[in-house]
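Protocol step 4 of 6.
Sequence for Capsular polysaccharide transport system permease protein (Cohaesibacter marisflavi) entered exactly as in the expression construct, tag removed. Do not edit the line below.
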Amino acid sequence: MINDIKSKLPALNLSLYLFLFVLILPIVIVAIYQGLIATDRYESLASIYITEAKSESSPLDLSMLGLTSSTASDRDILVLKAFIESPTLLDKLNDDLGLLDHFASSDADFFSRLTKDTEREYALEYYNEMVTATLDEEAKLLEISVQTFDPAYSQKVLDRILYHSQKFIDNLNEKVSRSQLLFFEGVVQQSEEELMQEKKVLQEFQQKNKIFSTEIASQTIAGTISSLEQQLAAKQAEITSRQGTLGENSPTLIRLRAESEALKHQIEKENERLAGGSGRTLSEIDSEFRDINLRIEYKTLRYKSHLEALEAAQLETARRMRFLTIVSAPTMPEASLYPRRGYNILTGAIIALMVYFMVSVSLAVMREHA
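Step 5 output, C-alpha cells:
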C-alpha cells in the first residue's frame, strides 16, 4: 500500500503544480493587477450629427423594399469618422494638448500607458483604442468616446475633437463652394469682358463713321430726299405755270430754274450719300453695324446665361452646405469605468480554467498511453 502511495506521489505533485501554476497563479496575478495596479481610465462621451441646409428627397422610396438609400450627409459622417480616426487629427490633438505625452505618462501603469517615443503606427493604434467613433446606423449619429487617465482631460480632448471636426466640415463646405463656383465665376468674368469689348468696338465704329445708328441715318436721309423731291416738284410746277405768262429770259423763271437745279443737285448728293458714291455705301456701313449689334446681342444673352448658371450654382452650393450639430455635449466623467476589473478578472479566470482543463486532459491521455 505504501508503494502504491509512493507511485502516485509524482502524479499528485504534478496535478498540484498544475493546479497552482496554471489555474490559481494566473487568476491571482490578474486579480492583483486589475485590483491594485491597473490605472483608472475615465471616459467622456459626445454625440454629433451632420445636417444639410436642404435635404434632397429620393424619387424612389427604397424603404418599401427593405433597402436604405445613402444620402450625402451619410457619406459626410463616414468621412468625418475616418477623419477622427486619422493620424491627422492625432497630430492636431498632440499639438494642442500633448495627447501622446499624457498617454505615456509615468503615473499610469506599465501595461496601460503608451511607450515613450513609440513608432507612429503603434501610437495611432493606441490612439484608436482610446478614442473611438461609432456610427449609429439607424439614428445616423456619430458617438465619440475618449478615454484618458484624468476625467477633466478626457472632456478637454473631446472638446478639441469637436472643434477640429467643425473645422473639417467647414473646409468641406469651402471646397465644395470653391470647386463649383470658381468655374462659373471665371466663365461669367470672361463673358463680361467679351461683351465690354464688343461694346467698345461699337463705340469706335460710331465715332469713326460719325453715326449713332444706321437705321436712324437712313431714315433721316430718306426723309431729306423725300422733302427735297417735294420741293423740286413744287418748283417745277411753278415754272410750268409761269412759262405761260412770263418770257423765257424773265428773272423770275431764271431764279426758279436755278432753285430747281439746286434741288436736283442736292437730291443727287443725298442719293450719293445714301448709295455711298465713291466711298462706302450706307448699306455696307449698315451691314457692319448690324453685325456688331448682333454680336453684342449674342454675347449679352451668353453673359445672362452664364450669370444665371452662376446664381444656380450658388443656390446649389447653399443647398449642399453641411452643418455639424452636437446632439450630446462632451460629458464630465465622475467614475472610472475602465478597466472593467470584475469583467477582466472573470475573463482571466475562465481562460485559466480552460487552459488548466486542456492541459490536465492532455496529461491524462499521455499517462493512459504511457
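Step 6, annotate. The two ends are 22 Å apart (CA to CA).
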